Amino acid sequence: MPQDTTIYWNGKGQLPALIDSLPLEQQQVVLNAIHQKIRDGIEPAPLSPFLFFGAIIIIISLLVIFSNNKNRKREDENNTAVFDTDPCLPEEPTSNPVLSYPGNKLDFSLPVLLGILKKHSVYFSALNPFEKDKFIERLKKFIAAITFVIHDKSGFKEMPVLISAAAIQLTFGLEKYLLPDFDYIHIFPEEFIGVHPSIRVLEGNVSGNTINLSWKHFLEGFQYPDDGQNVGLHEMAHAYYYQFFETSQYQSDSSFVTGFPAFNNYGNKVFEQEAKPGFDLYSDYALRNFQEFWAESIEIFFEKPAVMKAQYPDLYSSVCTLLNQYPV
Ligand SMILES: [Zn+2]
Predict the structure, then answer these.
(1) Residue 100 lies inside a defined structural domain of this protein
(2) Which of 70, 90, 110, 312 has the fewest Cβ atoms nearer than 10 Å?
(3) In a domain, 138, yes or no
């Protein structure tokens, strides 16, 4: 296990040691604006008052039940999920605070960015000085283009920096690295609840124009950089797929788009192979559908590249080509 000083989230409202809190003056409660944005983008069907309050009672009950459920599904994207901050709920900022940080107001100094990246990102630490400059430049632009919404009482500098760093890591070999169709990244302290189309516990998902992440699970991805699991890279893989293929075609990265058919081809063979007994590089979750297979392929590519190359050389090489990165 690599040495790492990543500090876990200790619980709602608690400030983990060695994690810097964001400046208070930049914390704003902007529920109205966020809810309006969500209504504009992914409004669920309106509920009658009876159904509405019934749904709230069910959700609260399930929250209690699911809080002890260890076999959680990571996520289930491709839906118009709403979360425990359901836009239909009465707006009570005092009982359910949301902190919003427009990235273009988060003017992190170079020492702050370097401090966080060197401490938490094995990927960044391995770059040469020229690449580090390029990484920082891209990171700043990515942060500036996103609004980070934190569903807790405190926000941490590591949140926008490390989450954006996952995006920059994934696209570091590409020309296009921004996500212009994603305006918001929502950060929940721990697992959160998706209620549509079904109620389930999530560590992360991509929905509408937002990326949603559990900070606790996101940090675990960075703490164990070689276990093949990284929810930040996983959700970014979904987000870039949607950005390049399903949203603004003009934003597509040519290397990514032209490289994807080869991944698709070899991926289908590996997908079938992994479904057989005795093959377990991929989780069962990855074999639910090809989108999950794609996202988990990215996790394995960055965290277990030598294993992937040895076991599935064609697949590994196709990911190298489409990302223009060669980790082995
Ligand atoms: Zn997924």
Answers:
(1) yes
(2) 70
(3) yes
